[in-house]
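Bug #77: duplicate submission created two jobs. Keeping one. Sequence:
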Amino acid sequence: MNMPDPPALEKVCGKCKRTFFKQDDYLTSTSRWRVCSNGNLWFNCKCGSTLMLPRGYYNWYSPELAIRGSQRNLFQQFFARNSLPHIPAAVMEVQSLLADPDTEIKELVAAVKSDPLLATEVVSVFECKQRVRRNTEGQGTVLPKKARLDLAYAITYIGMNQLASMVLVAALRKFEISTQVFDPEVFWRESRRVGIISEHIWCKVDNPNGKDRAYVAGSLCNIGKLVVALGYPDQIDALVRYLADPSTQTTWVNAEKILGAHDHRVLGEVGAAFWGFPLWVVECIRGHQGPTEDIAQEYQKLVWVVGLANILHHWVNLEPHRFREEDLLYFRQNLNLSAVDVEALVDRVKCLNEADIG
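Kept job's structure:
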């Protein structure tokens, strides 16, 4: 069924000055379409900047547009019985500011301060990165208390690109979870650890300039578990109970198969499309558990880094049953790392205690 064209609305990208007017303009060389809590439609221009269409101008839009064909059936099934919460409009505004090269730091500070949870998350991540890098790399010094809590300094230290994804993570952390056994705080703490480990591995195998992307991708690779918790709380509780039983000794993916639960990688793709994650995060969601077909070549190394980080997280937690040796071999060989290299990475990660990673 062909949908009628929406009313024409002109938008001009503040970064590259591209003009959008007709429907075809909006559907050409754009990405990361998502709807905010106010019903407005947000998207990214080819240059990376974030733009918004007011509610009522997108009768042709569906999150299915971003779903791979093989996953659309599950997407439809999921939303037939569940719904996912939308990202708050305030978070989208912060992302829009971050994409504007003319945005001043004081504007960002004001926008972040408007959301107390986001401000807390920014300071928390900043302090975590300071501790981790000091303890594992010998870099940095202890900052005065005032400097550590200064949002402007924290935003500058974290970097605009990583902050754009951080505001999304902060929004996801606000979602109410009605589980009894699955603990969202434990989930987010473990996600941050995988992000930190991903950052370390990236610095070992590539240019350190890409470490922030590795941190974000590692932090979000298991987001499918959150989608399961939101849509199928009984399933996620059953999985946590099953894996906590010392007699099971298996991986999360295998437990999903045994219990007939949904694959968190697939539901991670559903959530990623709905919330407008960048493609490099989607690829890491798909491939972080082991060999996966059709990973875009430009993101393969990032996927391998995140996959290895996910394994090392279980390694240092003394959970060898939570990963497969063949997957460890696959990731480290693709990254040209020897067994000795991996053991050295494990030693570095082990020096981080609970307070370091948060």
